[in-house]
Design goal:
Immunoglobulin-like, mainly beta, three-stranded antiparallel sheet
């Protein structure tokens, strides 16, 4: 009987990231009928998408000023997490390179939709911690309940300073990789 219960609990936990009730009926012989109820609560969960629920494969940086002005891009992000606190860092310094040149610097910032920009830096002891303030399940409000998944809206901003030189020398196609790490922050149980 333990095998059936464990399998059903694991299946419920995989299919439902928040709190979930699962009911398992176990029949032992023809005279005994038992119903076992279990509440499965996810311990940690995080999902990062753009505002439409996807993740773009390509971000295009555009230069809106003069020849020496920075290239910029921004992306609205939605972060769903359990617990509400999560940390963000860069796996490595992002770089933009062509066949023969490299951008001088690439700056990555993440800010809550409510404001307060914070510059992301490569993995260091100073990892940035954010806290979502809207809860999607259970209480349906701003007060968290056990197993409630939180959500927050953030703006990812990328700014890159082009290489020095004449356009004829440094112009071309530049590519790079942005690797960000989003992790739920472990909390001590009450």
């Amino acid at each position: 009987m333990k095998k059936f219960l464990l399998t059903a609990m694991l299946l419920a936990q995989m299919l439902m990231p928040g709190a979930a009730w699962c009911e398992i009926e176990i029949v032992a012989g023809s005279k005994t009928h038992s119903v076992i109820r279990a509440k499965v609560v996810a311990k940690r969960y995080i999902e990062v998408t753009d505002a439409q629920g996807h993740w773009p494969n390509v971000l295009v940086l555009e230069q809106s000023g003069g020849l020496n002005s920075p290239f910029e891009a921004q992306l609205n992000l939605m972060v769903r997490s359990l617990p509400a606190k999560f940390q963000v860092s860069l796996a490595a310094n992002p770089t933009l390179v062509s066949e023969s040149h490299r951008f001088q610097s690439v700056e990555v910032k993440l800010e809550p939709a409510s404001g307060g920009a914070a510059q992301l830096i490569p993995l260091t002891p100073a990892i940035l911690v954010f806290t979502n303030t809207i809860y999607l399940t259970g209480s349906g409000g701003t007060a968290p309940g056990p197993g409630d998944i939180s959500t927050g809206n953030y703006m990812l901003k990328i700014r890159a300073q082009p290489p020095d030189g004449r356009v004829q020398e440094v112009g071309g196609i530049y590519t790079g990789q942005l690797s960000m790490i989003f992790e739920p922050v472990a909390q001590t149980p009450p």
